[in-house]
Amino acid sequence: MTSSADSPASTSRMPVLYLSHGAPPLADDRRWTAELAAWSAGLPRPTNILMVSAHWEEAPLALSATTTVPLIYDFWGFPQRYYEVTYDAPGAPALAADVAKLLRTPEVPVQHDPVRGLDHGAYVPLVEMFPEADIPVLQISMPTLDPQKLFEIGRKIAPLRDQGTLIVGSGFTTHNLRWFNPSASADAHAPTASTEFDAWAREAMASADVDSILDFLRKAPGAREAHPRTEHFAPLFVSLGAAYESGDLTSRSVIDGFWYGLSKRSWQFN
Question: Which in 74, 145, 253, 260 has the greatest CB count within 10 A?
């Protein structure tokens, strides 16, 4: 299977992304912002974008506002300019209806939060990748952190790809804030647990070892140090489910390296 980023005109099916989204100061990192911009430039233009962010856990599964509402500045202690960023993307009511139809069952309700805006896990990368803010965006919550259940959510929403929806899981490939030291260089040497987990994730993804990825807490070196809490790796499982087809999973690592010790590795699927 060929990545649609390599031949965007060859298929109408949208790829699926998992990206490390960074904190608001990502906007000041010229290298990383350039990498995100170059990535989006190679993608087919989406009809709409469905975001799964590490920063929204809510059960039952919830859908964000389908009109343009203010962003959620869900961070503290940063300079004022980071609280003045805007991203007035159109709402996506038709996408919300399609997501609800695919996911809702008598046992699994889907709720709608008409006032919830995009959190920084959604808008920080979107500002860099689609700065015109002219593509409708919907965010969905993670109702659980269970890898298999998130994977199944991804599989259920996979048909949206054929409608031009870009499904994006937004987290961080390693995420231990004890490593984050803003007084040091962003390029400072990463902790061993971060580099070992990153190398394992790279190899597991290259070999399409979905079972090991879903069981990462037992299979990956330094997993519990790289992810003291797993919410930043969890969006990957939705992306994996949406990309998985007939036991085959084709991916490529688009961005790698470390930022204040955290792995910013990001993948594109199919």
Answer: 260
Among 3.30.310.50, 1.10.10.10, 3.40.830.10, 3.20.20.70, what is the CATH number of 16-269?
A: 3.40.830.10
Report the DSSP pairing between strands 48-57 and 62-63. unpaired
User: Number of helices and strands (H, E) in the chain?
Assistant: 9, 10
Spatial distance between the Cα atoms of 257 and 70, rounded to a whole number of angstroms: 32
Q: How many other C-beta atoms can be found within 10 angstroms of the C-beta atom of residue 100?
A: 16
Q: Tell me, yes or no, if the pTM score tops 0.90.
A: yes
Query: CA-to-CA distance for 121 and 21, rounded, in angstroms?
Result: 6
Bridge partners of residue 253, in order along the sequence: 267
Question: Which pLDDT tens digit goes with each residue over 217-254?
Answer: 999 999 999 999 999 999 999 999 999 975 668 999 99
